[in-house]
User: Fold this.
Amino acid sequence: MPGFTRAFREELARVGEKQSCCRMAAVSGLVHTAGTFLIKGGTSEADRYEIRLATTVQPAAKMAYSLFKGYGAEGNLVTRREPRFEHRLVYEVRLHGTPPALQALNEMGLLSDAFRLEPGIPRRLVKKSCCRSAFLRGCLIGAGSANAPQREAHLEIITSHQVFAADLTRLLEDMEFSPGQRFRRGSYVVYLKGRDDVAGLLAAAGAHESALLIQEQAVVKEVRSRANRLANCDSANLRRTNAAANRQLDAIAFLERTGRLEGLPAALQEMAGLRMQFPYMNLAELAEAADEGLSRSAINHRLRRLVRAAEQAGG
Assistant:
């Protein structure tokens, strides 16, 4: 898992759910995105079904386990290592499909009264703004990922259910975000682009430090971009100054070589001498160096007259 994704998931898991409704919404979002309902076909009720929830964030697994246990569900919390991803630790909640566990799923909106799985988002769980934030917190812990702050801002929540993806998109739109949706490699991806949206969603879910990192990088990127623009502008100005100075020096050399410089007005001869003395000064610097206190515009006018005189003479 990318470092930034792990960081914001762990930050979200540290948010304390003070109200029972928010705790229910958070676990519902977590189970929707990281849970599995297994039909095993056993003979007893406890062996017929199983609920599994796997996450790399230990506090989130403990919160979900505690909520189910509060309903009287039976099961355990185990730790294992994945063979992939550098053998990272995975915390897995495994619950028997007893009536208390199924009742908990029903109240989370994942199981209907008719014992049918409901992949959509239960509107009753996200009526209040605090519960919406908690539900999104669970979704981000369960299946959220984001680019590092130094890269282009992009956040995704992945689900295998089209109905859930559509409901999540509408929920984000109701919260004034601008989500997109795509189908990729057998999964539905709900995503946000842009630093304002990505940082805004993380902050709304409770990951304020991660949101701040994204905004800080936006400032750093803008400062760096402006510095580059100024550097490029300075470089372009320097190239133009050097090109103009070379044209002026070539013109003066031609006029001097052909004896035409002596026939020009004294002001132009003095300007020719000043340019040869300071070959690569810009106009402002030449104006400061001139004894007569000439303006930048006057310096430019006299140098142009020298170039024009050389061109008219065939130089």
Observations:
- The longest helix spans residues 208-257.
